[in-house]
Specification:
The longest helix has 13 residues. The strands form 8 sheets. Strands 26-27-1-28 form a 4-stranded mixed β-sheet. The protein folds into 2 domains: about 210 residues, UDP-n-acetylglucosamine1-carboxyvinyl-transferase, Chain; about 210 residues, Alpha-beta prism (UDP-n-acetylglucosamine1-carboxyvinyl-transferase, Chain), CATH 3.65.10.10. It has 14 helices and 28 strands. It is α/β, with parallel strands linked by helices. The protein binds ligand EPZ. Ligand EPZ binds next to helix 1, helix 5, helix 6 and helix 12. The site of ligand EPZ has 22 residues, from helix 1, helix 5, helix 6 and helix 12.
């Protein structure tokens, strides 16, 4: 087990390049299974979840090699259709392989993804859509057995909720299906647009990605291509939060402001100044932060649920009262008790968190219990008086590439220590 030891009260200052997006790299790796020949993905973050996805591809008969931030995949002759249980458990988002395996191989067996730290993670929208496309899916003792005799066929699908994962799975299943598929009430997240961009470069015919209606025309086969993963918009929000809470100033290269359109106004309201350019973003923070008012998490283009925890850390030092309503996940306040241990004044009631700004935070021994909650603890520790120990760093490593190195390069004092 490892922990991060943070010496607080160091201003974040300087310039950094934001990492590639975890939540795009994973569906792109699943999509690589659909393409013959070689796929080369650049700007892949070096994360445990990415390596788990590579191992899944290996189990499906693909050659997969990760060197630095580049991943090569060869999927000329996939074999087998089962995703091992331990890999499904290691990475809940492995469910996104279901659509790709069905699309390329025609059958699939995998264990139901467990719930995760954020609460139950149902996949009913994924399964009902794939059944409409002709998949026969049986669930028994936690195992999904799926087959589509005669191959998948295009369908009109109306999602009751704009699920990111369900939208991705349907796209992955539809690109090689017979006929056309329409996804209504589709997720509009930038990762959907990135996936469509990759698939189209492989020869797919997808339009409407990024809107609430996505059209996919089934084609006979796809060929591997070279592609660069989009920048990680949540890692960007994390870096901005680090600058904001420490009264710092930060230039972030390869930042796409259009991916965080609902987040920038919150930083503005708290007294930061954010300047955006085509391929970078600059944020400065004054000596005092002010209440952010009310922030509600929503599907894109609303405020992203993944940025909620880090912004809450900033709000703990903002003068006045801030309110967060978490509309996406039912258990996404697990970082609150840990922030309170550091001196924050936060009360939660169901999906609402009321944050009363305090004058300072204090270093403490805290424990991460999920990816973004762990990142929030790091952000708070940067501003806290004294030393903070953050345990269970494995959660943070799922989504951030050597976060301690990133932060030390811009003025922080963070050490990774084996326990
Ligand atoms: C993706 O998860 C992201 N993960 C999450 O990021 C992100 O928080 C989420 O989208 C929302 O933006 C990856 O991309 C790997 P959803 P996903 O399907 O696809 C309910 C992080 O920290 N739902 O849009 O699982 C579900 O319970 C992670 O990087 C159903 O009810 O999100 C949740 O309440 C955390 N039935 C809501 O929809 C379904 O079949 C959003 O889920 C599917 C989802």
């Amino acid at each position: 087990m490892q922990k991060l030891v943070v010496e607080g009260e160091k201003r974040i200052c300087g310039e950094i390049t934001v990492q590639g997006a975890k939540n795009s790299a994973l569906p792109l790796l699943a999509a690589a299974l659909l393409a013959k020949g070689e796929t080369v993905l650049h700007n892949c973050p070096k994360l445990s979840d990415v390596y788990a996805a590579c191992r899944i591809l290996g189990c499906l008969g693909c050659e997969c090699r990760a060197v630095g931030n580049t991943v090569w995949v060869k999927a000329d002759a996939p074999e087998g259709c089962c995703v091992p249980d331990e890999l499904m458990r290691e990475m809940r988002s492995s469910i996104v392989f279901l659509g790709a395996v069905l699309g390329r191989i025609g059958e699939c067996c995998l264990s139901l993804p467990g719930g995760c730290e954020l609460g139950p993670r149902p996949i009913d929208l994924h399964l009902s859509a794939l059944r409409r496309m002709g998949a026969v899916i049986n669930e028994k003792h936690g195992v999904l057995r799926c087959e589509c005799p005669g191959g998948l066929k295009g369908a009109d699908i109306q999602l009751s909720f704009p699920s990111v994962g369900a939208t991705e799975n349907i796209m992955l299943a539809a690109v090689l299906a017979r006929g056309d598929t329409v996804i209504k009430n589709a997720a509009r997240e930038p990762e959907i647009t990135d996936l469509a961009g990759f698939l189209n470069r492989c020869g797919a015919r997808i339009s409407g990605a990024g809107t609430d209606t996505v059209y996919i025309e089934g084609v006979r086969e796809l060929y591997g291509c070279e592609y660069k993963v989009m920048p990680d918009r949540i890692a960007l929000c994390t870096l901005m939060s680090a600058a904001a809470i420490t009264g710092g100033e930060l230039s972030v290269r390869e930042a796409r402001a259009s991916d965080i359109g609902a987040v920038i106004p919150v930083f503005d309201q708290m007294g930061c100044s954010v300047y955006t350019y085509s391929d970078r973003l600059f944020i400065t923070s004054g000596s005092r932060l002010y209440s952010a008012g009310t922030v509600r998490t929503m599907p894109f283009p609303g405020f992203p649920t993944d940025a909620q925890a880090m912004l809450m850390s900033v709000m703990t030092l903002a003068k006045g009262t801030s309110l967060i309503i978490e509309n996406i996940f039912e258990n996404r306040f697990r970082h609150v008790p840990e922030l309170v241990r550091m001196g924050a004044d936060i009360r939660t009631e169901g999906r609402a968190a009321v944050i009363e700004g305090v004058s300072r935070l204090y270093g403490a021994r805290v424990t991460a219990s999920d990816l973004r909650g762990g990142a929030a603890l790091v952000v708070a520790a940067l501003a806290a008086e004294g030393v903070t120990e953050i345990h269970d760093v494995k959660y943070i490593d799922r989504g951030y590439e050597a976060l301690e190195k990133q932060l030390c390069s811009i003025g922080a004092d963070v050490k990774r220590v084996s326990e």
